[in-house]
Design a protein that fits this description.
metal-binding; 4Fe-4S; single chain; two-stranded antiparallel sheet; iron-sulfur; alpha+beta; 26% helix; globular
Length: 82
Amino acid sequence: MALLITDECINCDVCEPACPNEAISEGEDIYVINPDLCTECVGHFDEPQCVVICPVDCIPKDPNHVESEGDLLAKYKRLTGQ
């Protein structure tokens, strides 16, 4: 499943450059994650880098975009051409 940035986000700017898929961008009020690009860092890292680096713990799994590990790996391969 993709990740989601909640309204607890403090706009600290650390998550956006940490995302290897460029799935995070500045939204109107807080940063947002594009679920079509988010692989939870599957294929890149062992754990989602935005979650690791977030100082306020505001990036849970998005219940509206449920995906299995296999789905995330397939998305990674599609996005990276591997």
